[in-house]
Amino acid sequence: MLEIGIFGATGRVGKLLIDEILLNKKSSLASVYVRNELQYNIPSSVLVTKDMVAFLESSQIIIDFSSPEATNKLLECAINNPKPLVI
After folding, report:
1. Alpha-carbon distance 8 to 6, whole Å?
2. What pLDDT shows up at residue 72?
3. Mean pLDDT per 10-residue section of the chain, whose length is 87 residues
4. DSSP 45
5. How many Cα neighbours within 13 Å face the side chain of 27?
6. How would you label 44-72 residue by residue, b for 16+ Cβ within 10 Å and e otherwise?
7. CA angle (43 as vertex; 27, 23 as ends), nearest 5
8. The pLDDT of residue 39
9. Which end of the chain, N or C, is less packed with Cβ atoms under 10 Å?
10. Helix spans in the chain (H)
11. Biggest alpha carbon distance in the chain?
12. Do 60 and 84 meet the contact criterion of CB atoms below 8 Å apart?
């Protein structure tokens, strides 16, 4: 099962991605990176974090649907914690 992390989880599209991943039986939502608190509930097994390293380490692949500035921060951290990224 593919363990997916969502970067930009607090936005509208981030929420849509989370909903789709939770419905898919071939993948699982492993972690979400948040700047603020989530305004909706997700399973308790999902890591919700502001720690970029923990976020990257908990997933096999990261889907980024954030701002250009946030993407730059993700890329800077991903250099030392390589993961496949979908941006």
Report:
1. 6
2. 96
3. 94 92 95 88 94 96 95 95 95
4. T
5. 20
6. eebbeeeebeebbebbeebbbbbeeeebe
7. 40
8. 83
9. N
10. 12-23, 52-57, 68-80
11. 32
12. yes
Both structure tokens of 22:
């939770």
CB 60 within 8 A of CB 2: yes
First to last CA, the chain: 21
∠ CA 74-51-87, rounded to 5°: 25
What type of residue is 36? N
Strand order in the sheet with 85-86: 47-49, 27-33, 2-7, 61-64, 85-86
**The whole model's pTM is what?**
0.93
Identify the residue whose tokens are 């305004």. Answer: 39
